[in-house]
Specification:
heterodimer; A: 407 residues; alpha/beta; ten-stranded mixed sheet; 21% helix; globular; B: 494 residues; six-stranded parallel beta barrel; 12 helices; 24 strands
Chain lengths: 407, 494
């Protein structure tokens, strides 16, 4: 769908969309003027939205029958279930230690629809979302946020998560579904002083689906935004994270793994802005690519003039398991303060032949040897996940990936 | 931070006293009228007595340029360039082409003497520098504004079959070679500045090393922009046939002026089977003053085609000059087992901006590339490394190693790194490392404790930081480069 097709959907639905109409009109103006992102734009150099322009999506009809995936049902925690972008109280278990509001898009304070066009698209068409707040000093435990998509629809949920001073929350986000659909969520995350948000994401959308998500996170003094995202689903995916470390000693971890096969294309794009002294960021991003898949990593660390004593680290590694797989990465540093320690590294290669030979010579079957080596390759990103149930969920997803893409 | 007055003094010393190449020479010039149009191109072509095909090529390039837009992706800010406010041709007036150096305007020779560039072979041969100083012989081509004024050691080189002459002369004497290779690596419409250069280039060096010949001495070109309101558009073409070897050096300076001057050069290198080209640059165009006034806008396209198996091209550059540097010396590694190298030191101070790096395109099997880039930012400058490593599907066993380190001196400057890493072959192996830091306090303390002044300590540390690159330079150049680093950074520590 082109921007104008989305705009005409908006014209038809304008009257029934809830929330602030002026925000939507402004976002529509951005799309009207500039359209969807194209390949000539630097930020979209490696990711083409062609599958999106070729598709045609309807507005979702609420209330359809769905069953929760077993992995979701197995998690013993409060859960918020969205089907085709609409909150479903019948499938959800609301949290007791966090305040939840649904029914209207949670616009949040951080999104920039004027610069990110997909965020403009979301702002224009968002119909629902979760607004989750944790009060000062409260440990809200774990909350699971589930999105299930279905055939032929586009949905643009808008979430906001707010952790007040010293609060704690683990948010496990699972995206799944079946058929051709577009999931275009935007989440605004504010972490106040000393608060800690752990954000574990599993993107396991249907293999024909398109997943385009944008997260804005703002971390105040001494706060932590600790995230890990695993991408295994979707035909075309882009996860964009804009994290700003706005208070002294704020910290962000943006770790990710992308496991791709077939004709999948996935893009993990991050911008970390160090905007206060002594802030720290860590990014470990791993790509495992087989078939004709295409992995993209774009990571930018910006250090502003006042952010002295910044410590920024970024590591991007890719394993190419087939002759037709492709990786593109662009790790970027933009530094305006002098007393900093920033580094990035990137490596691209195949499985180590010696290691593979070692395992084979000890009788490990070929497929298993590869699986062991890939798991070891992912260890650096997966192992630091302290949340046990969350890690088990991600480990299972990694194990399941092999069944989809046998060597 | 030292006393303000003292800092000011050192800054003054660094800018006014520091750029010792800032003088200008009063020479009677033959200037084309300002502006760019087909007539100017025809004028340049006729002044150079060029064949019809070259004029056609220029006009086609001009047509392409008109349709192109100035690139804006680099991290550079400058007011729009008025391409109509430039002289596209400036040459020292002379009656006929000089037959020997004695016929060259003495004022010009003095200019080169002031620059420390020996144009007189006899002076070098006589060993004026002292008998114990066994300096290797260097053949020199000196380009003054739009024309080449002198080329030394031509006959010595000719004995071994090496052609080293101004490209305008090559057009007359070796038209078949020029026609075959000109634009074969950087096509006329490659990019905005290359298209402009193709339309209006005035001179530059031409080097041809025939099969199996190892060039008996280092070749060097010295570029000098002198006239006011001129652009310099030189074009260099180097061809190394099978098994040939050449080391080529390039140096550049310009007078100190308030307005910005444009320099848009194109350099093309072609290396065949087993050939090796070593290309070293010390770029020291006038960088502008402490307030950011004046300085050269340096938009350069440099590219090497490693066409033959086992061919090798290495680019080494020390970039200390120019208000703006936009430069990405690249290697297209076509031949199997060909090797590309890029070693760079880029220093920016005051209001200088540099966006520089390389491209390594791996096409052939087992091709190898090494990139070592050291960026040093001081004052209010911005220094960006921008590099691309691309592995194409057929480049089995390709290998790349990239290291880019940035050093920040002072809290008003910026250091940026923008690498692009693209692989489409699972047997290729790529490694990339980048770091950004300031001069470590403990290193500084160690040196100060041993009685070095702060400035000397910083020089020592910076030289150490750049050592990996400086050691790639031919010896004489390395010494000059080290001095240049020291001069560039003078006054930026306080």
């Amino acid at each position: 769908m082109s921007a104008s097709a989305f705009l005409s959907r908006f014209d038809a639905a304008r009257a029934v969309l809830p929330g602030d109409a002026s925000l939507r009109e402004a976002a529509a103006g951005v799309l009207r003027a500039r359209g969807l992102p194209g390949p000539r734009e630097e930020a979209w150099r490696y990711t083409r939205l062609r599958p999106l322009s070729e598709a045609d999506y309807a507005m979702p009809v609420p209330g359809r029958e769905v069953s929760l995936p077993a992995s979701v049902a197995a998690l013993d925690a409060p859960r918020l279930v969205f089907v085709d972008g609409t909150y479903r109280a019948d499938l959800s278990v609301p949290p007791s230690k966090a305040v939840l509001r649904t029914g209207v898009p949670a616009m949040g304070p951080l999104a920039r629809p004027e610069s990110e066009r997909l965020v403009a698209l979301n702002t224009m068409l968002a119909a629902d979302g979760a607004e989750l707040s944790v009060a000062a000093g409260v440990d809200a435990g774990t909350v699971v946020l589930v999105s299930l998509g279905g055939e032929g629809v586009a949905f643009h949920p808008r979430h906001a998560v707010h952790l007040a001073r010293g609060a704690k929350l683990t948010l496990i986000e699972i995206c799944a579904g079946e058929g051709r659909y577009l999931h275009n969520p935007v989440t605004s995350i504010t972490v106040e002083a000393g608060a800690i948000l752990t954000h574990l994401r599993l993107q396991d959308e249907g293999i024909e689906a398109i997943h385009l998500s944008t997260i804005y996170a703002d971390v105040a003094e001494g706060g932590t935004y600790d995230s890990f995202a695993l991408t295994i689903g979707a035909r075309l995916a882009r996860m964009e994270v804009h994290a700003r470390l706005g208070g002294t000693a704020a910290m962000a971890h943006l770790n990710a793994a992308q496991l791709l096969g077939g004709v999948q294309h996935a893009d993990f794009t991050t911008v970390v802005t160090h905007d206060a002294p002594a802030t720290q960021s860590r990014q470990t991003v791993k790509n495992v690519l087989t078939g004709r898949s295409h992995g993209v990593f774009q990571g930018k660390i910006e250090v502003s003039r006042i952010a002295q004593k910044t410590d920024g680290y970024q590591m991007n590694q890719a394993l190419l398991l087939s002759p037709d797989a492709e990786i593109n990465c662009k790790p970027q540093l933009e530094i305006y303060a002098d007393d900093v320690k920033c580094s990035h590294g990137a490596t691209v290669g195949a499985l180590d032949a010696d290691q593979y030979f070692y395992l084979r010579s000890r009788g490990v079957p070929a497929a298993e040897a590869r699986a062991i080596l890939v798991r070891a390759f992912l260890a650096e990103a997966l192992d630091p996940i302290a949340h046990e149930a969350g890690r088990a969920l991600l480990e299972n997803a990694v194990a399941g990936w092999w069944e989809r893409h046998p060597a | 931070m030292a006393v303000v007055a003292e800092t000011l003094d050192t800054v003054n010393a660094a800018t006014e006293g520091g750029y010792k190449w800032g003088f200008s020479t009063e020479i009677e010039m033959d200037l084309a009228p300002k502006g760019l149009n087909e007539d100017i191109i025809r004028l340049i072509s006729s002044r150079k007595n060029e064949p019809e095909w070259l004029l056609e090529w220029r006009l086609k390039s001009y047509e392409a340029w008109l349709k192109m837009e100035e690139p804006d992706w680099a991290m550079l800010k400058h007011p729009p360039i008025d391409y109509q406010d430039l002289h596209y041709y400036a040459a020292p007036k002379k009656k006929a082409g000089p037959k020997s150096l004695d016929e060259v305007d003495p004022e010009l020779l003095r200019t080169y003497e002031k620059l420390g560039i020996p144009l007189r072979e006899r002076a070098i041969l006589a060993g004026v520098e002292g008998a114990e100083d066994e300096r290797p012989q260097v053949a020199m081509d000196a380009v003054f504004d739009s024309v080449s004024v002198a080329t030394t050691f031509k006959s010595t080189l000719a004995k071994s079959g090496v052609i080293f002459c101004p490209i305008s002369e090559a057009v007359q004497e070796h038209p078949e070679l020029v026609r075959k290779y000109l634009g074969s690596v950087v096509p006329a419409g490659d990019n905005y500045f290359a298209a402009l250069n193709s339309a209006v280039f005035t001179d530059g060096s031409f080097v041809f090393i025939p099969k199996g010949v190892r060039c008996p001495m280092e070749l060097s070109t010295y570029f000098r922009i002198n006239a006011r309101n001129t652009g310099q558009f030189e074009r260099t073409l180097i061809i190394a046939e099978d098994g040939a070897y050449v080391s080529y050096l390039e140096g550049c300076t310009a007078p100190q002026r308030d307005e910005n001057q444009l320099h848009a050069a194109v350099v093309e290198l072609v290396a065949f089977d087993d050939a090796q080209i070593k290309y070293s640059t010390v770029q020291n165009w006038y960088p502008g003053d402490a307030e950011g006034r004046g300085g050269i806008y340096n938009f350069v396209t440099k590219r090497a085609a490693c066409r033959g198996a086992r061919s090798k091209v290495s680019w080494t550059q020390v970039e200390t000059g120019s208000a703006i540097t936009w430069k990405y010396p690249s290697c297209i590694l076509q031949g199997d087992d060909s090797v590309g190298e890029f070693y760079s030191v880029a220093v920016t101070t005051n209001f200088q901006q540099a966006d520089t790096g390389t491209k390594m395109i791996h096409l052939g099997k087992r091709t190898k590339s090494t990139i070592v880039s050291k960026g040093i930012s001081a004052g209010r400058s911005n220094n960006t490394y921008r590099g691309l490593v691309r592995i194409m599907p057929k480049a089995d066993g390709a290998r790349n190693f990239t290291q880019c380190d940035s050093l920040l001196i002072g809290d008003q400057c910026g250091a940026h790194t923008v690498p692009y890493i693209e692989s489409r072959n699972p047997t290729a192996k790529l490694e990339h490392e980048a770091t950004t830091s300031k001069i470590a306090d403990d290193q500084l303390f160690y040196c100060r404790q041993r009685g070095l002044s702060e400035e000397d300590a910083v020089n020592l540390i910076v030289n150490g930081f750049c050592k990996e690159v400086l050691k790639e330079l031919p010896m004489e150049f390395a010494v000059e480069a080290q001095k240049l680093l020291a001069v560039s950074l003078e006054g930026s520590v306080g």
